[in-house]
Amino acid sequence: MLANATNFDTLLTMIRWKLHFIFLLGLCVAFTSGCQSMAERKRDESLSSTLTLYGKVLRWQGPNEQGSMLAHPEQAPKNRGITVTSYKVLSNPVKTGEDSAHQTAAIEYVYHDSQVIKRIIDQQIWEYDSENEIWLRENPPPGMPR
Questions:
Q1: What is the pLDDT of residues 25-78, one digit of tens each?
Q2: Rg (Cα) of the chain, in Å, rounded?
Q3: Residue 11 within a domain
Q4: Is residue 142 part of a domain?
Q5: E strand residue ranges, the chain
Q6: Does 146 fall in a domain?
Q7: Beta bridge partners of 135
Q8: Model pTM greater than 0.70?
Protein backbone atom coordinates (compact mmCIF):
# COMPACT_ATOMS: atom_id res chain seq x y z
CA MET A 1 0.00 0.00 0.00
CA LEU A 2 2.89 2.33 0.78
CA ALA A 3 4.37 1.73 -2.67
CA ASN A 4 1.11 2.80 -4.32
CA ALA A 5 1.05 6.04 -2.29
CA THR A 6 4.61 6.88 -3.35
CA ASN A 7 3.79 6.24 -7.01
CA PHE A 8 0.70 8.44 -6.68
CA ASP A 9 2.76 11.30 -5.14
CA THR A 10 5.31 10.97 -7.93
CA LEU A 11 2.52 11.08 -10.50
CA LEU A 12 1.00 14.21 -8.88
CA THR A 13 4.41 15.90 -8.83
CA MET A 14 4.92 15.16 -12.54
CA ILE A 15 1.45 16.47 -13.38
CA ARG A 16 2.10 19.68 -11.38
CA TRP A 17 5.38 20.27 -13.21
CA LYS A 18 3.69 19.73 -16.56
CA LEU A 19 0.87 22.10 -15.64
CA HIS A 20 3.37 24.72 -14.48
CA PHE A 21 5.29 24.33 -17.74
CA ILE A 22 2.12 24.64 -19.81
CA PHE A 23 1.07 27.71 -17.81
CA LEU A 24 4.46 29.40 -18.27
CA LEU A 25 4.49 28.52 -21.95
CA GLY A 26 1.03 30.07 -22.32
CA LEU A 27 2.20 33.24 -20.57
CA CYS A 28 5.20 33.50 -22.88
CA VAL A 29 3.01 33.15 -25.95
CA ALA A 30 0.54 35.73 -24.61
CA PHE A 31 3.25 38.28 -23.86
CA THR A 32 5.01 37.73 -27.17
CA SER A 33 1.84 38.23 -29.18
CA GLY A 34 0.88 41.16 -26.94
CA CYS A 35 4.15 42.94 -27.78
CA GLN A 36 3.47 42.70 -31.49
CA SER A 37 -0.04 44.06 -31.15
CA MET A 38 1.24 46.86 -28.90
CA ALA A 39 3.74 47.86 -31.61
CA GLU A 40 0.96 47.80 -34.20
CA ARG A 41 -1.29 49.81 -31.91
CA LYS A 42 1.48 52.37 -31.37
CA ARG A 43 1.92 52.64 -35.15
CA ASP A 44 -1.85 53.08 -35.64
CA GLU A 45 -1.99 55.77 -32.95
CA SER A 46 0.95 57.49 -34.61
CA LEU A 47 -0.93 57.44 -37.94
CA SER A 48 -4.02 58.91 -36.34
CA SER A 49 -2.13 61.72 -34.63
CA THR A 50 -0.12 62.45 -37.81
CA LEU A 51 -3.28 62.74 -39.92
CA THR A 52 -4.89 65.03 -37.34
CA LEU A 53 -1.77 67.19 -37.21
CA TYR A 54 -1.64 67.32 -41.02
CA GLY A 55 -5.17 68.73 -41.14
CA LYS A 56 -4.28 71.31 -38.49
CA VAL A 57 -1.11 72.36 -40.30
CA LEU A 58 -3.07 72.91 -43.53
CA ARG A 59 -5.87 74.73 -41.77
CA TRP A 60 -3.91 76.98 -39.42
CA GLN A 61 -0.46 77.37 -40.96
CA GLY A 62 -1.25 77.00 -44.64
CA PRO A 63 -0.41 74.56 -47.43
CA ASN A 64 3.17 75.89 -47.73
CA GLU A 65 4.05 74.58 -44.25
CA GLN A 66 3.41 70.88 -44.88
CA GLY A 67 6.91 70.14 -46.21
CA SER A 68 8.10 68.39 -43.04
CA MET A 69 5.23 65.91 -43.35
CA LEU A 70 6.05 64.95 -46.94
CA ALA A 71 8.30 62.06 -47.95
CA HIS A 72 9.55 64.37 -50.71
CA PRO A 73 9.59 67.92 -49.25
CA GLU A 74 10.38 69.42 -52.64
CA GLN A 75 6.78 68.58 -53.60
CA ALA A 76 5.39 71.14 -51.16
CA PRO A 77 3.19 73.67 -52.95
CA LYS A 78 4.69 77.03 -53.76
CA ASN A 79 1.39 78.90 -53.78
CA ARG A 80 1.28 82.11 -51.75
CA GLY A 81 -1.69 84.12 -50.62
CA ILE A 82 -3.88 81.09 -49.85
CA THR A 83 -5.90 80.42 -46.73
CA VAL A 84 -7.40 76.99 -46.12
CA THR A 85 -10.90 77.62 -44.80
CA SER A 86 -11.94 74.02 -44.24
CA TYR A 87 -10.35 70.59 -43.98
CA LYS A 88 -12.73 67.64 -43.65
CA VAL A 89 -11.87 63.97 -43.70
CA LEU A 90 -14.25 62.23 -46.13
CA SER A 91 -13.04 58.68 -45.52
CA ASN A 92 -11.22 57.56 -42.42
CA PRO A 93 -7.72 56.18 -42.93
CA VAL A 94 -7.61 52.71 -44.44
CA LYS A 95 -4.45 50.68 -44.00
CA THR A 96 -3.42 49.31 -47.39
CA GLY A 97 -0.46 47.43 -45.94
CA GLU A 98 1.54 47.21 -42.76
CA ASP A 99 3.40 50.43 -43.59
CA SER A 100 0.92 52.28 -45.79
CA ALA A 101 -2.46 53.94 -45.48
CA HIS A 102 -4.90 55.93 -47.62
CA GLN A 103 -7.20 58.78 -46.65
CA THR A 104 -9.50 61.13 -48.55
CA ALA A 105 -10.15 64.70 -47.45
CA ALA A 106 -11.98 67.73 -48.81
CA ILE A 107 -10.07 70.99 -48.66
CA GLU A 108 -11.69 74.38 -49.14
CA TYR A 109 -9.41 77.33 -49.71
CA VAL A 110 -9.45 80.92 -50.84
CA TYR A 111 -6.92 83.15 -52.60
CA HIS A 112 -6.61 86.41 -50.72
CA ASP A 113 -6.99 88.54 -53.83
CA SER A 114 -10.16 86.87 -55.14
CA GLN A 115 -12.06 85.83 -52.00
CA VAL A 116 -13.76 82.98 -53.89
CA ILE A 117 -13.93 79.68 -52.01
CA LYS A 118 -12.64 76.71 -54.02
CA ARG A 119 -12.87 73.03 -53.11
CA ILE A 120 -10.62 70.10 -53.97
CA ILE A 121 -10.65 66.43 -53.03
CA ASP A 122 -7.32 65.27 -51.66
CA GLN A 123 -6.41 61.57 -52.05
CA GLN A 124 -3.60 61.04 -49.55
CA ILE A 125 -1.17 58.11 -49.48
CA TRP A 126 0.84 57.75 -46.29
CA GLU A 127 3.92 55.56 -45.73
CA TYR A 128 5.54 54.66 -42.42
CA ASP A 129 9.23 55.50 -42.11
CA SER A 130 10.39 52.80 -39.69
CA GLU A 131 13.86 54.33 -39.33
CA ASN A 132 12.48 57.59 -37.93
CA GLU A 133 9.21 56.04 -36.68
CA ILE A 134 6.99 58.61 -38.39
CA TRP A 135 4.31 58.63 -41.08
CA LEU A 136 5.03 60.70 -44.19
CA ARG A 137 2.82 61.64 -47.09
CA GLU A 138 4.10 59.72 -50.12
CA ASN A 139 2.12 61.32 -52.94
CA PRO A 140 2.37 65.04 -53.75
CA PRO A 141 -0.30 67.35 -52.35
CA PRO A 142 -2.90 68.48 -54.87
CA GLY A 143 -2.53 71.75 -56.69
CA MET A 144 -4.82 74.54 -55.62
CA PRO A 145 -6.01 76.11 -58.86
CA ARG A 146 -7.50 79.59 -58.96
A1: 666 665 655 565 788 888 999 999 999 999 999 999 888 888 889 999 998 888
A2: 27
A3: yes
A4: no
A5: 82-97, 100-111, 117-129, 134-137
A6: no
A7: 128
A8: yes
